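Fold this sequence, please.
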Amino acid sequence: MLTMARLLCRSRWSLAVLRNFSSACAGSSCLNPVSRIGTAGEQQEASRWKPARAQRRSRSSGAVLAGQQLLLSETLSEWEKQLLDRLIDGLLGGQRSCLAEAITLVESSHKHKKCLARLLLQRILTCQKERERPNGGKPLSFRVGLSGPPGAGKSTFIEKFGKMLTGKGHKVAVLAVDPSSRTSGGSLLGDKTRMTELSRDMNAYIRPSPTLGMLGGVTRTTNETIILCEGAGYDLVLVETVGVGQSEFAVADMVDMLILFIPPVGGDELQGIKRGIIEMADLVVITKADGDLLVPARRMQAEYTSALKLLRNRSKNWKPKVTRVSSKTGEGIPELWEKIEKFKATLLESGELQIKRQKQQKVWMWSLIKENVTEYFCNHPAVRNQIPSIEDKVVSGDITPGLAADILLKAFSTKE
């Protein structure tokens, strides 16, 4: 049955691409523009075709994209086609090795591998839509971002929380992001070592990834990795950020719910009134609420509850809450899961979750465009040749950085 579903998904994707590509070719022989029609009667007749023509143009733009994807797939070698088919079958079958290989492909910076990754992601998205159709188009998975300062106990919490969820029959994917060294470019990727029990659970998958210099607490490909995990059947995706403080906004644009973890005695009591990641959080969790830290945790819970009243709620249907947990004793973790389920049910019922995901896709599209534009700018022939000399002049103090930027931008915008 599962094999038939995979074949159906693959065949529908191929037929859709062929159908759109054919319509794109047919769309090139449209009617002449209205400006070329002479008589008033012809003008009136042409005005009746304006809506249809506009609709045809909007369809043809998407069809051209599908046609380009088809042409790209036709340039692949037989080995590459077999690779994509194997990864697709493995992902839909929930094979962890195929998921790991697919994530490695998506994280690659090689240009040709990026093309393979785009084809892979497109086919996974198509299959996901097929899966969600019986559910009324509602998402089958839930994405949770876990942020907070270093030492707040995020990894320890995930270990306890993940084991509880796998015991309930859930499949949990953990994407742990570690900072990269600006000197060597390396990363420790040590989060997995603090989740020994969860890493051995066959219903859980832990993937540590380096930031590779990207700000915001996540990696460049975290959003795509989430899609792959969902395609592999993981219904709960936990994204653990770097944990650098108030500037981890990027994760909020790729998860359904953002949870902020705060330790009870970290000198962080007044951070609740700062506008930063606090106003992005849907739930604030005071960790290590046990033993001698129980009283400070209660006090901090009261302070953050008061601080959140000063901030405007991001959602019209949910008011951020503050709770306490202890990963050592497990106290408060079942209640935290109940709040997460309530949040999910509230957003699904109101339709806010689907709208939120649509907005996030647009945000990340522009984020990737900005990243690629910078690379394209530096590799432009008119700019690439001037960069060394301009940099030397800036370093020596002959020109200001602002003037240097204007010179390079002018060279980039000047037509040859």
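The chain has a mean pLDDT of 78. The two ends are 59 Å apart (CA to CA).
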